[in-house]
Task: structure prediction
Amino acid sequence: MIDFLKKVKKSKNDLLLLNNAEKNNILEEIAKSLIKNSEDIIKANAKDMANADTNDLSLALKDRLLLNEERIKGMSEAINQISALPDPTNRVLDGFTNNIGLEIHKVSVPIGVIGVIYESRPNVTSDVACLCLKSGNACILKGGKEARFSNEAIIEVIKKTLKQNNINENIISLVPDYSRESVAKLIKMDKFVDLIIPRGGEKLIKYINDNSSVPVIKHDKGLCHVYIDKYADFEKAINISINAKTQRVGVCNALESLLVHQDIAKEILPKLEKAFNEKKTLLKGCEKTRAIIDIDLANDEDFHTEYLDNILSIKVVKNTDEAISHIGAYGSGHSDSIISENINNINKFLSLVDSACVYANASTRFTDGSVFELGAEVGISTSKLHARGPMGINDLTTYKFKIYGNGQIRE
Amino acid sequence: MIDFLKKVKKSKNDLLLLNNAEKNNILEEIAKSLIKNSEDIIKANAKDMANADTNDLSLALKDRLLLNEERIKGMSEAINQISALPDPTNRVLDGFTNNIGLEIHKVSVPIGVIGVIYESRPNVTSDVACLCLKSGNACILKGGKEARFSNEAIIEVIKKTLKQNNINENIISLVPDYSRESVAKLIKMDKFVDLIIPRGGEKLIKYINDNSSVPVIKHDKGLCHVYIDKYADFEKAINISINAKTQRVGVCNALESLLVHQDIAKEILPKLEKAFNEKKTLLKGCEKTRAIIDIDLANDEDFHTEYLDNILSIKVVKNTDEAISHIGAYGSGHSDSIISENINNINKFLSLVDSACVYANASTRFTDGSVFELGAEVGISTSKLHARGPMGINDLTTYKFKIYGNGQIRE
Result:
């Protein structure tokens, strides 16, 4: 592992010497190569699909895993979009000349070596590799075992293209093996790795966060809330709740827990029940909810659960303060929304709910890089430092101070 | 510990509700109270000083520990300067209305609860407490045992002032005890603490970094280099080397290792030796250096050592590339300087040396918050994420996205 990491770390200076045109040229070559080699990639994917059958993976997981001509075309297009973004590095973020003539420039630079740990979808492999290349970072990818052959085929195409363009192929690497131990080792290698981005299950992320000596930006679960305030417009409240929960249930910005102000619960809960029944959503509620509509009981564990399914927990709360403190205790800092026409309650909610994205009168489903005009995203950060919420290419940079003097010494 | 942390976490929302004028008012009251209670603080400090005698602390450490009227006045003035800074929170960093009318605002917000672990100088206690208050963060302070009575006296004055102004006193707290275990516990409390800032010895920082599940921004050692290029102006090279090494030897931005291009080594090393002899600097060199000037041998360990003393290691290098790779292997990512009149070598050095502050033709001693016009500083970050180099009050904030809708749902 150390020999492997030494090579990767060494490669990052080669990346620093490439200008934007050179990086874009390679990205476009990679986009073409993926199309050209789609047959090989699909063959490799078939092996993963066969294993998925043997291992009885769920239909949803198999769908995420599958690659075909159209999906490879999508991967290729995503790379061309990344190539079209402005170079996030070498931007002068701030700068001035001080009173003794020191020119102090704060300049954006790549972070260095980034390890990304993720699951299933093989398109993440090419997306992340190319986002890192564009932002000048060497990357170490650790995909899921279930996508092993697909990922290896994609990386082989990318590495071949790098070689053909005389670029150090170590700038984009898969971890040498798929054992759990390789993750355990990787996250202790702060001498060689500057950042770990884990995307995936709660347990994996907790394990990495608790054990990593490399800084971590978590892409953790989304336990998102909608709070329907006493002063809510009912039509907006119902539309937004339905949309946030049911438009796509398996995603991190989908609604999981609905909070309803007690003064309007009697009136709005039956309407909500009717609307959710049409979407076949399984509703679970607290005792106060069940005193109004006849649904299953939601226990404490329910309110801690990211269902990623067509299930919703409902809780009646006394006021905005209780909604805020419930979200503080049960939320995951991802996306939460208040439905209200009252500016004071909106301001309070938006200030005090400590989440990456806080909404007033809109669906939580909007949390993503394209809506926020950040371009392709690495994921949605639920960490609070460095990058929060949709994490775009700029968030893959840090800065350094370059100071130009003319012999100045400190008196 | 958990009860203590729950109280601190709860207090952070009280802070969010204070506006800038209210925060400044409290800061000014604290500044006054420190002066008013200086007698009590000095009495408490005398206990620490007596223990320092018993424990045979070095003169330098005792000097850092000592408080007197003048130093307390300095602490008070520092707080008034913090109060005069613009509020770093609630700034709209970016924002736009998208094509379906969602108003997306990226707004600076406090990080939340910050734990700061530091040593000796009791003025750090009031500085950090007030920087956190100004930036809306609750803070947990863990000072050194050697400054225990001084820190407790300072915090008592601050807490009394908070109470008198009806502010939740838990926003500024000392850890309940001085055991090593309390640090071990604190750094595992990611449910309650959002950031740990360790300032101090290398071992302490490594321990915290390796074991913390809370994100860490290290304020680690400064193993700073000056590289004298083949194309250096000798007068600048000698002045800067002398200044960076000897103007103040016990600080993190002082020079520790001097690198000299082989083509000029014969000419410049005797001049450097003469200049450093006048400053009584103990010189140690690699074999190539010792073939030119008669000094002690610097072994591999020397090049890894932050002396914090009037000692300098010297190495002769082949070229700028070797200087860069030496700094990559031995440096601490703090501050490094090239002395050269050649723009290509300067650009290469400034691009490829991966340190927070990279200088051309200036002393490394300039790395601090006041020179960089950041105001009072929390320290010098040697981490690469979130904040790098001198860390001012803006770096104690993160951001959230506030999204204002009017019923928008995702199609």
